[in-house]
Amino acid sequence: MANNNLHAAKAAKKDEFYTRLEDIAAELRHYRDFFRGKSVLCNCDDPYESNFFKFFALNFNSWGLRRLVATCYDGSPVAGRELPLKFADEEEPKKLRTAYKIVITEVPDMNGDGATDMADVDCLIRNRANVLTRLSGNGDFRSAECIEMLREADVVVTNPPFSLFREYVAQLMEYGKKFLIIGSQNAITNKEFFPLIQADRVWLGIGFKGGAAHFYSRYEDTATAGDHREGMIRVSGVVWYTNIDHKRRHETLDLYKRYSQAEFPFYDNYNAINVSKTAEIPLDYDGIIGVPVTFMDKYNPGQFEIIWQGSGNTRASAPKAVLERLGYKPHKEDRGGCPVLNGKRMYSRIFIKRRQNENRTQQNQDL
Q1: How large is the angle between the packed helices 144-152 and 165-174, nearest 10 degrees?
Q2: What angle separates helix 21-28 from helix 51-58, to the nearest 10 degrees?
Q3: How confident is the model over 320-331, as pLDDT tens digits?
Q4: What are the φ and ψ backbone dihedral angles of 71, each rounded to 5 degrees?
Q5: How far apart (Å, rounded) are the C-alpha atoms in residues 261 and 276?
Q6: Sign of the C-alpha dihedral, residues 207, 212, 214, 217?
């Protein structure tokens, strides 16, 4: 799942990827009822460059939001450059790089055109000094003033810097916040993040079509895949992570394959069979199964149990009881726990087991 854009940007600490409005809308429409009456925080978003802010501002009234807060980090290469900002202590608006926050509690028809749109939000910001405020610090989500905003929020929605993804998620969990954020699919097997997945405290959202997305970025597009777009970069292996429930998470994965030892061999270092495609999980096998990480997009907690993951950190991160349950035996080729099949090290796998109620349901269907 390597991606040139992700790796190059991570190495250079360049994480300013701006999400398209249509991608935000496509995901968020599945959670509309949840947002009614909520205070939303976008804490990695320069409000007028961020389409997260634009989406919630445009839908503030129709979605019944209670409050919208967006903050800008002054280290952003585009901070404050799109919109001339006027603070309470200044006579004229000016373009500058500074950390600030915007708080919206209502979006009335400010310009009297009979519609509520971004022009009204613009009027609101320009005409009510208490809405736009400088931050005392640099706008880092880890700062005391940003943590206070986090405490006050009901839900956080943003595209955080992926170089700080683990720290960002850890903060959300520490303060018990609901969230919907974008991250790399590779984070699933991270030793700090995976236990949240395994414990059903975090799961995947609906996702991007084809597991890839285009982002607005000032950095060079180094991806080798096709479908390039002017002024954007194409990034594969990106997903939405959330702890907000959605209907697709409970859809049953229809199984049709039957187990055969020849088609589904055991790993050399785990007491589990290898299934190369999620769609081919055998309907009549009750043991432990190793599936690709992309299985998480189809994961239904009522149908499957996630036991652990097999990757280079498994030997060090998995509890002893889990390693024993998996029948793990160190192998010279596993580099810390990667599954090995016929002497060949494989990509990371998720170890799962069909739940007993699912077994009975499938058997009844076959009668």
Answers
A1: 50
A2: 50
A3: 999 999 999 999
A4: -125, 155
A5: 14
A6: positive
